[in-house]
Design brief:
homotetramer, alpha+beta, Chorismate synthase, AroC fold, five-stranded antiparallel beta sheet, 26% helix
């Protein structure tokens, strides 16, 4: 599995299984001089912590991060930052049963096919706990972005059939409901809808939207490493995401050029009247808000009976036990922010090398 | 611009501007022993050639590829394969006007912001002609995939509001209409719709769908280099693409787990009853057909008047002249296939290193 | 510092400072199915452990490795393997003095210049303890090589003016003296020489030689990623190494072609009469023993007075206190083996993709 | 062969065989705004051109470079720069004989072993002509370095047993003799020595030394991507190089710490009294001159009879015909400069991301 390293200049290497000794990440390439303490990381990890309402898993995961290297007298030194969260409750007996069959919608089958066997305890490496490393590293990226005046915000745009209404949009509301929704009325309707589905032993999907404000222009590399292409990979690399769109996205496919094109105008700087591009033109940031969406599938672990195959190639009916989230969206919001921040800081660093005049000035 | 190299083991390096001397690509990491001649490449380039109907640009681009290295006595040698298409008609006078303002929906503004100036002739590096290098390299990847029994097919799923009807789906029909649509009736309706929009000096968008058959299981790396994440980056890196979804995609966000999960069953092998996953579980191929979609925006170059800003920061009205495609979809179909093939062969090569027992057997 | 990740397919990410909480490494891309336990790692770490004779530092570093992930039921799973060695004795008071000046021969000055400040405790990231991560990861690479029939052996070829005599060469002797020398008589003379230098509060350098037996042919990539070029980088990346040569090395520069060329002959396979090439032709392994050498400078930390500059830009005389190794060679031997193994396994994995016929056979 | 791409931010992709259609390179990641024309490249290529004296091959290689992309109105645009040198005289009949056996000291055997067959015409990809791509790309890197005040100079330090005398050192002398030696008396003695060896149908080796002046401090990444480790790989990747040493190099292995350590002193800046380190401390530039050496083996193609094996596994005697250089050193000097420049510019670009305060200032 040569796939647990992400980034080009700001590179992270994540590790850890659901029921192993711990989960962690090493950040290689973090600039020196950033103030950093464990609380800076912990506040992001707490946002993905379960057990905060009946709509997330009732497992107790009291994930406390520890910084093992790369910080000296409160500042990053430029050397690798290693962070670890030890797994405290390893109730792997819950999972012994699933060793014997392939859970629908999970990676059990493909892991076995690729590697010959798998760590079946709680999904092993394909568990949602894998994202702890991403969020811990993302917290550092977020702090770097903040120091450059950039703000990243993700939230639930929809859960099942319930969408937010932008006329009621309030980002602060996001922290007040269990669904990370910036619209309290929509959140109330989700609560009803989800409760019903939980009674049916079923789970629900949704859409996460993410905005980036304060971006400088010109970030992203033309051709293969476009800003939007890089974000797409980042977001699709999150377990349950099945789609990505930026700006008008799939709606743009139905538009005419005269509708989709964002007109430029001058008013104390060059600006755009609309933002169908979602902040990216030709793969480079255009100074507008970046806005994109991720389609998140429903939690595959459901108690409702499903058909599958066991290790003896028999067709069997199963009901997935255990304390699973009835939806992935709320806890994935902070993961979307993390992957976005990691992607942006990497492209921002790379962009420093684009122009000779600015390089000469840098070294003067 | 450190963004013109793509791939990890099968790596391509593309180059060239719309109105420079030529466009090309170097392929580093192509296995030795593949039969290869220029005709293998040319047939893919011909599929993106314009001027084949009134619905694509009337520019004559007689793009003939030349292989400069890496092939000896009809076979690839394992050394880099350099390919070039010389630009024949460089009517750059058509473009002198656009040097003075920013075309809406184009990368003119962001190129200037990133690099301080731009090659304004025909879009320079951000021209659609940049994809010639991708298609030429993709043709080699396609031939490698074929030798492994894998088939990649892209086609127009919709143009503007007109969608194909899967009950009439016929992949061979794709070559019979100017829209690369596998449904002749839908194509006829697109013809009407697009003619109307062309009269209005406007352009239209659409959706490209791509299928991959014959994939082995286990391809793709868990965590960051997932099969679907890698495809998403590949597809979003194509100029006008604004969205990507795999399997049920954005529809999955509205589903319950019991609907979205694909049940496994055994029938002379482990199979799935449905394919909402689109052939990827946990970021690895599951042996089902891979199926994904790309949202393509309308051509930004339109003759219809638009507002923008010129180099003197004045708000002006412009009408883009020149022979532009009224839609991008038909000619982008082969580019989607190319980027897909490039991504798959890279992951297929990487997967060879996943299991020690198979490595030992390889070297025995 | 984006420099703590090494490798392309078998990638390691090391972290940790001399006086931080610990030192560790994450291995991404280790094939699944390798039997692995902590003892496999520990035995290599023990070879770099100090305090085993009067010729290495008298610091007590009881480095015990812990595997945190990537192993399930005694076998590697294909997921990242995280290993940590916690620092037990953090006597950082020893080092408070050196915060104020630049030690000659150390990286104090360049760290300050690059990052604006440094973790001055015991050299921080540039401490010899940084190699713990390399050795732990190298132990896994060694085990993979063994399963392919490949054996790597490094040893001290010379210390100061004392060289081994190949007529007395015995690799097992290496473990019997404090200098990792495969010649007991030479070791005895080193003991005398080094004792004298220690009395003078000085330190000594030496040459490490490394051999690789059992290599298959064709490993290494022509052009930039040659076998010898890759080894050179690996070995020069070790702190105190100032030179690298393979086969005849610098002697080849004085030879004629008729002397330097290794004649081929056939005797139940194609063989070479000599090995001035050191096992690499055109950057690819030729089936002969690989043999190369590393020049290791003397320990820069010496008690003998030296001139340097302090933070107030004053010229001062200093005497480096603390328990330092009088020579680096003996403890670096296992680091050379580790870097060699890491480099070879990476190139061996990459080589699997060189020929289409073998790829097709692999996937059949 | 995934080995023809070099660099991380300033990346080059070389291609071409000795007797194919041409040789070339694509540079991805060159900053925008550098004045560049073909003459800037040609002057470096001319330095490696053969046929300038009886001591280099009498082949006529009138290598004229053409820039195909990436330059607009005399300046680099930030897009990939593609350069090509077409092969004019493809006298491949000279080489038909060598298809049948393995030339000692060449890569014929290893190419066959790795890829199953080889392009036997003139060495194919392993020909010295492969370096044309390096030199063309290196010329651009040199121009970038010059704009930062950095100067790179390589020269022959020795040929066979003849060494330069530093008391007569004159870099301008380098252009006045066929050996690129900065000492006319040594050159005269080489002339005699080499003439004798040519009469004996033999070839000679030598040592190239390279200096870098004007380097800023802090360039190079600690741990794996050290300045010296990166240079070692760059230099060993050149065909005939068998050794690399920086500063005191292998001599350091015989020194005591008190001799090898370079004392710091303050005199209008922090300086060093000696330079045994060769300008690199802890893998980062220390502001002193960088100085390193490469051991170059004798040309393996000699007319003097040698033993080898043919394709029928028979032991045969061969005499290599053709117009070969009696020594590699003089023409490799500019290749050493090129690889040095490529390596330095890459590390200089990467270093821009080391400190947060400077990043914030850059984007202000």
């Amino acid at each position: 599995m040569a796939g647990s390293i992400y980034g080009k200049l700001f590179r992270i290497s994540t590790w850890g299984e659901s029921h192993g000794k711990g989960i962690g990440v090493v950040v290689d390439g973090c600039p020196a001089g950033l103030s950093l303490c464990e609380e800076d990381i912990q506040k992001y990890l707490d946002r993905r912590k379960p057990g905060q309402s009946k709509f997330t898993t009732q497992r107790q995961e009291d994930d406390a991060v520890e910084i093992l290297s790369g910080v000296f007298e409160g500042k990053t030194t430029g050397t690798p930052i290693s962070m670890v969260v030890y797994n405290k409750t390893q109730r792997s007996q819950d999972y012994s049963e699933i060793a014997g069959y392939y859970r629908p919608g999970h990676a059990d089958y493909t892991f076995d096919e690729k590697y010959g066997f798998r760590d079946y305890r709680g999904g092993g490496r394909s568990s949602g706990r894998e994202t702890i490393g991403r969020v811990a590293a993302g917290a550092i990226a977020m702090k770097l972005l903040e120091s450059l005046g950039i703000e990243v915000n993700a939230y639930a745009k929809s859960v099942g059939p319930v969408e937010i209404d932008y006329s009621r949009f309030d980002i602060n509301e996001r922290a007040n409901n269990p669904f990370a929704m910036p619209d309290s009325e929509a959140a109330a309707r989700v609560s009803e809808y989800a409760s019903q589905k939980m009674k049916e032993c079923d789970s629900v999907g949704g859409v996460i939207e993410c905005t980036v404000d304060g971006m400088m222009t010109g970030i992203g590399e033309p051709v293969f490493d476009k800003l939007d292409a890089s974000l797409a990979k980042a977001i699709l690399s999150i377990g349950a995401v099945k789609g990505f769109e930026i700006g008008a996205g799939f709606e743009a496919a139905k538009m005419c050029g005269s509708e989709d094109n964002d007109s430029f105008y001058y008013d104390d700087g060059i600006k755009k009247r609309t933002n169908n591009a979602g902040g990216s033109l030709g793969g480079m940031s255009d100074g507008s808000r970046i806005v994109f969406r991720a389609a998140v599938k429903p939690t595959p672990s459901i108690a409702k009976p499903q058909m599958t195959v066991n290790k003896s190639d028999e067709n069997i009916e199963v009901s997935i036990k255990g304390r699973h989230d009835p939806m992935i969206v709320p806890r994935a919001v902070v993961v979307v922010e993390a992957m976005t921040a990691l992607t942006l800081i990497d492209l921002i660093l790379e962009n420093m090398t684009a122009r000779l005049d600015r390089i000469i000035e840098f070294y003067r």
